[in-house]
Amino acid sequence: MKQKKLVPLMLALAMSTYPLTVGAADKNDMFADLPANHWAYKAVSELNAAGLITGTGRERLESNQLVTRYQMAELVASAIAHQNQADRPQQKNIAQLKKEFQQEIATIESLGQRISQLEHKTKDKFSLHGHFQQSIEHQYHKNGAVSNWWAKEIYLNPAAQLPGGWQFKAQFVTKMGSDKSNGWNQEELMHGQLYNGGNSRDEIMRPDYYYLEGNLGKTGQFMKIGDFQPWVQAGYVMGANIQGISLEHWGKGYNTHFFAGRLDVSNNDLAIGASANYDNAAGGWFPSLSQPWNDNVRAHEDYRIVNNAASHWQPALSRDGVTPLSEQEQQEALANGGTGSDNAHAGLQDPFHDGKDTRKTVYAFVIDKTFSKRLDSSLGYYRYKSAAYNRKPLHIGAATLNYKLVRNLNLQGIYAFGSQHGANSHDKGYMVDLMFHGNPWIPNDRAHYFGAYIGYHYLAPDTYIKCGYGDDIEKGQKGLALGMFYNFTANMQLAVKYGRGHSLTNHNLFREKFYSCFSVFF
């Protein structure tokens, strides 16, 4: 208790240069010099010599300078805070001083209380957290080819409490990267990264999300509005940010989630599509993957391009290289990329049309159900529309099942299917994982905490919007996924992951990946 009393007194001493909070005592008396012959000088000097007074005010006293009643009261307040160390005569001395400067001490205590309340309000209403991470990624391909990515990332997460139980949250991200074979400490700030089809953003304090969240006034009903990630169904279908709205109900044994909006996401995090390139030797246009090592390619037509008689600059698209598409089909393909890419500008490489539509919208409804302490499940429906499938909507149904085998050991299954069944489609995907200490993201605030998982991932591109997985088995691949996490302290975590499998979209080519990440949280 004595230590708790000391806090507001010390805060008051620290704020003594602000004579604005004068309550119990008169200003003129409080800040007038105490006469040199006042008995308090001798009494306080004796207490100071006994080590019962701390703080910066002692220097003035020890140099025989005059002090004001307020400054003397500060010294007395320090003695009061240490009176449990005083003998009987010293305690009597303190009691007399306390009586003499009663009004001034009351003002100091009042100031201390106000400062404490202000600190408490500030702490409750605003917070700033974040983390730094260093990650290393090595991907191994056919014939011994290797691609590398080294990254340093800083995340700052401010949050503010608002009236009515609402809160504002945001995240600002700075990213540095290098694709050199040994890129350790050679990472450079990432400039001009493309988002939402073609908008360029620099990865320097980039706003990643920002939203308002609060209770709608009824039990368990919440709304979120702004730019946010609606993480549902373990993130398999929807791991992207949206600019929109979310409505949720959290009940006893079940939860419902509805969200709608426009995607706000990096081009590199969505399907890239295939491209059409000119083959000089063959004298024609042929399809090819725009990034041969990227398997995240949605269902698409294998278009050929044939020149018409009028001009080489006005070619016609064709599926067989001979018969041109109809005018309507051609315009649809050219306007949307025509190659399975979510971002039309990254799709068909045609010099004839540049007014492509890069909007991406989603509507979704998910219901979670808890059957027992061991078993829970969820069902979800998603409607997604982008330049992929020539802007025809992708309807996705998904189900999850999570079963607790024994303490700290869970078996999780996820299954999803999409409505696009055209050429080159992969419309059924799933994941099965055995997880120790929860999912692949364990708490970072528990020292010496360990988690691990092993599973099989089949990440079919036509079964998700932006899959939240890919550190081991990448999007558009199938294979074994495993990983482990360990917290060295309550704020330092190491993650190591490994994936080994094959491409779903590029001739079943071999894929292997090693990923590690060290994070420091604050």
Automatic annotation (TrEMBL):
Keyword annotations of the record: Signal
Organism: Selenomonas ruminantium subsp. lactilytica (strain NBRC 103574 / TAM6421)
One Pfam family in the UniProt entry: SLH
Residues annotated as domain SLH: 27-90
Protein name (Swiss-Prot/TrEMBL): Putative S-layer protein
Keyword check for Signal: yes
Record bears the keyword Signal: yes
Region (Disordered) residue spans: 321-353
Alphabetized PANTHER family for the sequence: OUTER MEMBRANE PROTEIN ALPHA-RELATED
InterPro entries linked: Cell_Envelope_Struct_Comp, SLH_dom
Annotated signal peptide: 1-24
